[in-house]
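Q: Predict the assembly, please.
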Amino acid sequence: MKRILITGASSGIGLEAARLLACSNHRLILCCRTNARIEQTRRILIDAGADASRVDGVVMDLADLGSVERGCQQLLAQGLALDALVLNAGLQRAGDPTPARSAQGIELTFAVNQLAHQLMAMRLLPLLQQAPQPRLVITASDVHDPCTGGGRVGQPASLGELQGLRSGAGFGMVDGSPRFDGDKAYKDSKLCNVLMGRELARQLDEAMPVIAWSPGLVIPRGDGGFFRFNRQRNPLGMALFSLLARDLLRLTESVDHAGGLLADLSTAAEFSTAGFSFISNRLVRPGLHRFAAVETSAEGADPLKAAELWKCCTQLIEACLSG
Ligand SMILES: NC(=O)c1ccc[n+]([C@@H]2O[C@H](COP(=O)([O-])OP(=O)(O)OC[C@H]3O[C@@H](n4cnc5c(N)ncnc54)[C@H](OP(=O)(O)O)[C@@H]3O)[C@@H](O)[C@H]2O)c1
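A: Predicted assembly structure:
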């Protein structure tokens, strides 16, 4: 029985992973944006067969570093070891003409997908290190890599010299580009996730498994989920895209299977190799994916950029929390 903290367990891939883990008698800590979201998620898990006494929650609105800090301090005060820290929450706002902002005025995609998760890793590492065989799992994406199918569509991920990030909270793009591109901001945030994993593994002397992974393209049916923003902005376009990619061409992965992969990454012995790895669920042909360790993009493999990104994110977090 493992004690697993997971972000993004209220929907999609994270919810399915949480369901599988909770029903396998692991102890879960759900980090959700509100108490109401925790309770809704707990109810789903309990209705699916989870033991209520094994599912706890901590409020962390990842769009507010103050909320993340309070949640982490609460966990540190409890002092209980964590066997797995699963940083899975994420959002994308492709097509947004202007940046949405977090509570601290930081571009929302970067704030939620990267900065909040780095703060969690910084604070909660001591709890992971108390566990006998801990691991850290980060849901990234193949779109961080301009050489992959998804990464080739639109502007490719690239962080430049981090000029935007270095300029303080008001930037739109991490690389300092003046024009905001929501799709690239998402790809950049996933490149940041890969670099964060690399840097964390280095800081831990490659002694703990740090797994960044890509679930493949997952388009759930219904209103919510990962493409909720696209559905609001362009319902017809999104319906056509779903019909083509999911139903006709069978390019997508199911939520259930992607959630199962995340549950495995969080607990299975086959994913316990120490050090950094990137594991991708890649489309081989319509209807068939292969889940295997692969190389990251060249930029995602740059140790100097990983260290510099970590440093700049730490400075921004500290400035925000002390401001
Ligand atoms: N779906 C895909 O095609 C795909 C492909 C590659 C990678 N990924 C990655 O997979 C991960 C999971 O995505 P998904 O497809 O499962 O999407 P999803 O169904 O939209 O789930 C996203 C999760 O993130 C949470 N979240 C977002 N903003 C938050 C905030 N401010 N505070 C706390 N939690 C917040 C959401 O909480 P609420 O429910 O409260 O909104 C939800 O639980 C993400 O990191 C995504 O980037 C997805």
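The two ends are 41 Å apart (CA to CA). The longest strand covers residues 275-285.
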